[in-house]
Design a protein that fits this description.
The complex is a heterodimer of chains A (about 700) and B (about 150). Chain A has about 700 residues and is α+β, with helices and mostly antiparallel strands. Chain A is about 30% helix and about 25% strand. Classes of the chains: A alpha+beta (about 700), B alpha+beta (about 150). Bound molecules: FE2/S2 (inorganic) cluster (FES) (2 copies).
């Protein structure tokens, strides 16, 4: 049997690649590469597979092998802009392909090759600029040598090298062959920010033309010859097992070809997804046992309370004290594209098409299931119909590979929405207590905050559980920007057994609600204006102050409000970016709340594409607002009660306020933009509700706890 | 055997009468631009036009589609020329893009019968879910679409 394989060979200077003429490629080497003495070294391998960053084809097309998953955050565009800026490429000639699994593509900010934590720009800003600059210098040298002129007499511009004196010019495509023979400059000169012509501009996204005509290919759109369609059912009580099922009934459904066991569940395979679903209904699998047997929300709450009671309370010696208890529920990611994955496993080769944020673990699990070597496996990352952290998990990959291996045929697994809702890795529920005493000036003197929450990371790294340590649970609460003389924070790790995962903005998604509500309560107790109160507490933090003052100014904080209207403010730093938000709401005569306007200001350090930053601020805030207004996953008898969008209420356009965004370019370290606006929505809204109605909401979501929205 | 007319083309199919049109489009005919989001008519990702009216194809049995003119996102225009598509690009509406076929089809159908909808009519008619939170831009995209359509008419 012929063994197919894709061998990795790096640091080959140039070569022709399959039928497309000459290519020039680079691989980023994190350590100094002794062969070239620089951080960048040339490679000319066979296209995208092998650790290349860019390809310049003889027709001038430039392809960035994008190292991040495109899940809506616009990363392919912003990364291309960084590259094109240094390369002086013609923007129209830029294309992107998503990178294969290869350690060269690992984000330096991440422990493995995955997309998450709002780190793509931060991680790839340096390497992509260096790659672009090195390529530019090589193209200039190639042209100068051709013309017999000095390098200094030539310049790169919009995909051409130009000899100014003689007005001669050569396109990049015409130069790749010669450029590929040159050494890579070890220390290419980067452009000064004043010279930027792309970075900092609201360049239209590269991926949108395909996203408005149905041609964009998501994971669920993969179609292979002879492919089968499967759907799964997993134990509704987490980690239970299949007790019984009716295979004969399933196979009597037209088109159903197989029933396959998967971890904690069962799959039905057919020649059409709907028939697989029909087959699953006929199969009617019954389950038994499981980790969360008998669990409900009351019991979860009891576990949190018990942990916090064990921590105990402090004596507060002040006439003005707050003693508060806050809580949030589990939340689903509910990416609009349900979990799915396509795999084709044969005896000696496996291909996987996955809408995944986690290439590395997708590869690892595929190796494990198939027993194949790395060079017999290819993981293709498709477009993702939303990620939000859900697709850092790889359960859907495990299933597709398992089923395809079992059948020896290409199979696409698609989860029904009900399955997606009930087998998520949820945003952890948690509870937080505050004991705050105010000094004579009304500012907090003592701040004791106790958080009880599950750990996300201990599933990845068990020892964290032994030590009760998880930075993703405590981020946003453990350290505050506010000047508080006596600050104390405790974390109690509680594990009710419900699977939890990274949900867009992770720990900040609950901690910002707790902290920014509590500080608001303190300001009201002190009879201070909530904006001025924060301002005083942030006096020593100029970056925070700028953001806070900007958003207050945009919202015209302090103006006379119409009757029934209220403003709520909040500020929070996450993923390296500081975001401030103000929301204006009103309560109508029947007591329903309407959300009118939102103002957001953000300091994310540097800005590559301001329109993408805006879009992420808007989308993130709406994601947070949706959760604050109406999302809640509840448990009964160990199972999730919600099953689809009729009972898991997601915000629609009708309820969405207008949003305006101000970007503050502080020039500080690059921060993320995909997540940092999410945490602001819940506290800003809670504070606005208090301002409009006098009602303080200490648990989410608001619509399930006595507040009605229009 | 049934015959479906989709995007001006005739397709012969042989499926269960109750199979939702969505799955015929996606799994049998390879027209994957129409998306699956919920299967119960809640999200609108599967919106197509049936005789010019917006319909959620996940809840539309194929038998009822026989004899109608079906338009999917693939057949809305050539080269993204439809005013709604142009407005969507101008306003840079999509993020992940998964809901956008449905948003665009719903908007195109609304504006075809009501070229100047009020803000309220827009919000009552375009109830498609977007998990990425593009609503602010969808709203702008709809008013821009209406503007472009009016311009085309004069
Ligand atoms: S898939 Fe049809 S409305 Fe959601
Ligand atoms: S753009 Fe992602 S769901 Fe709407």
């Amino acid at each position: 049997m012929k063994k197919q394989s894709f061998k990795r060979r790096t640091f080959i200077k140039t070569s022709t690649f399959a039928g497309a003429g000459l290519a020039l490629g680079f691989t980023f080497v994190p350590l100094v590469n002794s062969a070239t003495g620089g951080r960048v070294s040339v490679s000319g391998e066979k296209g995208a597979e092998l650790g290349l960053w860019i390809r310049i084809a003889p027709d001038g097309t430039i392809t960035l092998i994008a190292p991040s998953s495109e899940m809506g955050q616009g990363v392919n565009t912003s990364l291309s802009m960084i590259l094109a800026e240094e390369l002086e490429a013609d923007w129209q000639s830029i294309k992107t392909e998503t990178a294969p699994v290869n350690s060269d593509y690992k984000n330096p900010e991440q422990p493995m090759q995955l997309t998450g934590g709002s780190t793509s720009i931060k991680g790839f800003w340096e390497p992509l600029r260096e790659v672009g600059a090195a390529a530019r210098e090589m193209l200039i040298t190639a042209a100068a040598q051709k013309w017999g002129v000095s390098v200094g007499a030539c310049k790169a511009q919009s995909g051409y090298i130009i000899h100014q004196k003689s007005s001669r010019k050569l396109g990049y495509g015409e130069l790749v062959e010669a450029a590929g023979k040159l050494d890579v400059p070890s220390d290419p000169t980067l452009k000064a920010p004043e010279e930027y012509s792309l970075v900092g501009k609201p360049v239209p996204r590269l991926d949108l033309p395909d996203k408005i005509n149905g041609t964009a290919k998501f994971g669920i759109d993969v179609r292979l010859p002879g492919m089968l369609f499967a759907t799964v059912r997993q134990s509704p009580v987490f980690e239970g097992t299949v007790l019984s099922h009716d295979e004969t009934a399933a196979k009597s459904i037209r088109g159903v070809t197989a029933v396959v066991s998967i971890p904690n569940g069962i799959a039905v395979v057919a020649n059409n997804t709907w028939r697989a679903k029909k087959g699953m209904e006929a199969l009617n699998p019954q389950f038994q046992d499981g980790l969360t047997k008998g669990l409900d929300c009351q019991k979860v709450r009891k576990q949190f309370r018990k942990a916090l009671d064990n921590e105990g309370k402090v004596e507060l010696d002040s006439p003005k004290v707050l003693d508060l208890e806050y809580e949030v529920p589990y939340l689903a990611h509910a990416t609009l594209e349900p979990m799915n994955c396509t795999a084709s496993v044969t005896d000696n080769f496996c291909e996987v098409w996955a809408p995944t944020q986690n290439q590395e673990m997708s590869l690892d699990v595929t190796k494990e299931i198939t027993g194949l070597d790395e060079d017999q496996i290819r993981i293709h990352t498709t477009l993702l119909g939303g990620g939000f952290g859900r697709r850092i998990e790889i359960d859907y990959v495990t299933q597709a590979v398992t089923i395809s291996k079992n059948l020896g045929k290409p199979v696409q697994v698609t989860w029904m929405r009900e399955e997606d809702m009930q087998h998520d890795f949820y945003r952890p529920a948690s509870m937080s207590r505050f004991q705050i005493s105010l000094g004579k000036n009304g500012l907090p003197e003592k701040w004791k905050n106790q958080l009880a929450a599950p750990s996300i990371l201990k599933r990845y790294f068990a020892p964290l559980g032994w030590f009760g340590f998880d930075p993703t649970s405590t981020e946003g609460a453990k350290e505050l920007p506010y000047a508080i003389p006596d600050f104390d924070f405790d974390f109690s790790m509680v594990d009710p057994g419900v699977p939890v995962g990274f949900w867009r903005s992770v720990g900040s998604s609950h901690n910002a609600f707790y902290i920014e509500s509590a500080i608001d309560e303190a300001s009201h107790l002190a009879q201070h204006n909530p904006f001025e109160y924060r301002r005083k507490l942030l006096a020593e933090k100029p970056r925070y102050l700028n953001v806070l003052e900007k958003v207050a100014q945009d919202a015209k904080w302090g103006r006379r409000l119409q009757k029934g209207h209220g403003l709520g403010i909040a500020i929070h730093k996450s993923f390296g970016s500081i975001v401030g938000a103000v929301i204006e709401i009103s309560s109508n005569t029947s007591g329903r709340l309407e959300l009118h306007n939102v103002w957001i200001s953000v300091d994310c350090g540097k800005v590559v594409n301001p329109d993408i930053v805006r879009a992420q601020m808007e989308g993130g805030f709406i994601f947070g607002l949706s959760a604050a207004v109406g999302e809640e996953i509840t448990l009964k008898a160990g199972r999730v009660e919600q099953s689809n969008f009729h009972d898991y209420s997601v915000l629609r356009m009708k309820s969405t306020p207008d949003i305006s965004v101000s970007i503050i370019e502080s020039g500080e370290d690059i921060g993320g933009v995909g997540e940092p606006s999410v945490p602001l929505a819940a506290p800003a809204l809670a504070n606005a509700i208090f301002s409009a109605t006098g009602k303080r909401c200490r648990s989410l979501p608001f619509n399930k706890h006595g507040v009605k929205f229009v | 055997m049934q015959t479906l007319e989709i995007n001006g083309k005739k397709y012969q199919i042989d499926v269960e009468a109750e199979m939702p049109l969505l799955w015929v489009l996606r799994d049998d005919l390879g027209l994957t631009g129409t998306k699956f989001g919920c299967g119960i008519g809640e999200c609108g990702a599967c919106t197509v036009h049936i005789n010019g009216q917006a319909a959620r194809s996940c809840s539309f049995p194929v038998a009822a589609a026989v004899g109608t003119k079906i338009t999917t996102i693939e057949g809305l225009s050539h080269h993204n020329k439809h005013p709604v598509q142009q407005a969507w690009l101008e306003e840079q509406v999509p993020q992940c893009g998964y809901c956008q076929s449905g948003q665009i089809m719903a908007t195109a159908a609304l504006l075809a019968k009501n070229p100047k909808p009020t803000a309220e009519e827009v919000e009552d008619n375009i109830t498609n879910l977007c998990r990425c939170g593009t609503y602010v831009r969808v709203r702008r995209g709809i008013s821009r679409s209406a503007e472009l359509m009016r311009k085309q008419r004069v």
